[in-house]
Records
---
Amino acid sequence: MNQTPLLPVPEDWNTALAVVAHPDDLEYGGATAVARWTSQGKTVTYLMVTRGEAGLDAIAPDVAGPLREEEQRQSARVVGVERVEFLAHPDGLIEYGVPLRRDIAGAIRQYRPDVVITGNYHPTWSDGRLNSADHRAVGPAVLDAVQDAGNRWVFPEQLQTGLQPWSGVHWILVASPPAPTHAVDVTPYIDLGVASLEKHRIYLENLGHDFDPRGFLTSQSASIGKRFGCAYAVAFEVYDLRGALGTVAVTD
């Protein structure tokens, strides 16, 4: 892991849209930071690209999908998130491409966030483990959709439904990257982060191995906290877009 000093995550914003592949993706660290931000009065909305229906080997997708949706809603409420949307792309088979970019850009135009949060989309995690195909597809689509949302000539059909261009995304925050650039102190919120992950009870019970949510989150957050100078912290890769999206070209 890159051991350069971590900068504070910018917090002079009011609204965020978090876009990830599956129910539970945010809860392995990102949701703990969300608990901090909602406690500050910020509004965070969750957008799941899938329903997580292919994530439980012992439970058929038509049963698992609704279960995982409900677990995600309960988990989100723990950290102060009331709105959770699902795009229902096929779990395990997400494809980067125009349809995915269109869906995410539409959500950005609808919610008009200051910040967009997504998950690690790099080939590996910080410990070298391979990342999943779904995560690697969603992240780049999020980056591109942020730009798409500000260009009225990209997906212009959305304008006819009242979704106007939005170039107001100031930052993109990528949670749990292998080489983070920023962090946020979550020491007072670690218990909420653990409780949020524990709401994915059915998913965790069907992993096929023992998993300790508290042990995982506290260990991970303590490691980042040591670098950041606090007890517990969550790391992000941050893209600063202030001013960059207001000049999106309308021609290729």
---
Amino acid sequence: MAESETGVYGRLFPRDQIPIILSSIFEVSRTLRKKTIDDREDWITTRLYSLMVRSTAYRDSALTVYLKPKIVSQDPDANTPVGEIDLLVSCGYGYEVYFAIEAKRLRVCATNGRLVFAGSYEYVADGMMRFVTGQYAPLMEIGTMLGYVFDGNIGEARVGIGRSIQSKAEQLRLKAPYGLIRSRILPDKPVDETIHDLGQRSFTIYHILLAV
């Protein structure tokens, strides 16, 4: 695909719409809560989706949010999709132009309060890496990771993710400053970001942690 004014791969998801999407996640997630101590991330994401589609960010705009859409392989001879994204926001520019959102559980505790599943490794290896390898958003430059923090301790969850990111810095192809940093995209909201060198493109992953 020829290079254009919007990027190496042609038309990109409009950046001015991304703060709207991220703000809507914070807005609707204020009432988002796990139902049990072992609630599944897919179930929580479904409930988040049901809140998002009723938000004015999607009801009154060209943005459309989809739940668990299949991702078509770049190989036209492939027999199966390469996976499915938890949430996908389209803007009417075609099926390859989208904003992908992947969600993971963090800091799952037993009834006695003991941490039984940190989730930091899975957040990085099974979440972030799907953007880095191009499994998700292969023609885009931005995506988002959501962390559902089951014990509500967002500070510890962020520390754990930061450590996992540092341990896989080379595989993640991190660019300077080589770690999790506070983003400026929403100055009044706690959004982090990591920046990745994917060869022909730089890819930014925004990180939002929600206490559920």
---
Amino acid sequence: MDEARARAYRAGATIARQRIEKEAPLDAEALRAVRASDIVVVRGCYDHVELVLDALQLPFVRVGAEQLGSVALRPEQLLVVNCPGQVSRDAVTNVRDFVEAGGSLFSTDWALRHLVEPAFPGTIAYNDRPTRDDVVRIEVAEADNPFLRGVIDPGEDPLWWLEGSSYPIRVLDGERVRVLVRSGELEARYGEAPVAVLFSHGRGEVFHMISHYYLQRTELREARHQMSATDYAGAKGTVVPDGVLDELNVGDVESAASSARFLANVVAEKKRSS
């Protein structure tokens, strides 16, 4: 794990948690109440959502992809399936039943083809146009959605890294599937705009995002992206521990803060609803 990237996520998570304390006290209370058994993370060899959970100081339980077919899941849990999400048929059935009963699934990238498509046919699908190693601008598609509270503020333009051979998300059911985050650049280059989507199934819900949730890099496109991360943290009214922001800039921390806040919102909403 790159040391600067780890510090960027530590800073981003710190900013997210401090803002939640100020802006959404009920969410902050829910996050403090999270126990390891509330979040189940399926290990992946490509993505590592658990590193974002670690940065947010949220506990969780790890299981292997080979265990997912037999692990006992409860409706009040959040299940995180890292890319590639290659699981057995029994696991697909187990996850479908879990969501139908009220569970929440959070999956990334190749899990679209390996898990989401077979478990929830007719909702979303891979468009068979893999991306290059690329970076795109992202925009909030549902400004009033509680999952997006504080994710992207006015005037911000965070960038989202696309792993080489990421799977663009095609929406098959436009009435059922809600696009939470989109990218015009992603659509222009690879045919589909969705970056993060949400749909309900039974009493539960499914979140899916393109590429890897733990971002490995970003780009410094504008002068604003090259500004000091210390200035960014100060503008958010937050305090980051000494040394964490050293040699980091806005481009490094902004995307990490956005992804940390989105995941924290998902966890908090799940904990509150349970």
---
Amino acid sequence: MNEKILNIINLLKKNNATITTVESCTGGRLAAQITAVPGASNVFPGAVVTYQTWVKEKLIGVNHNTIQEHDVVSEEVAIEMVKGGCELMNSQFAVAVTGYAGPDGGTDTIPVGTIWIACGSKNKTYTKCLNLGNDRIHNLNVATETAIDMLCEFVYDALN
């Protein structure tokens, strides 16, 4: 069991708050980490895996123009994923991940191994860009752990 997640679940319970995940390249890994901890159902209404762009737009409400202007793997899209996840799941907090995990994909300006993580609420968001290589499994593991760390930091800061 992940002690960091357990502590955040307890803090969320204490504050009657909830968290959701909106995941693209991590494909549900964050949600799996959260739901592996007993008591998660009290603070985790659900998750959305937005693997294809149209799902980000139609289900989460990411603006098509944002994707066209910045790319689907961008800080701007990750922030919109957080806001859309909070809205869709009626959650106070969300964490979102979008990236080119590899070994293929990417663009001339956004190479494979670029992963944007956003964590926050409707009003405030922390973001981080990872620039990794083309080892898919490594990239997914690093992205998942980084997102968990960001989630813990954001929720702790917001509720303490």
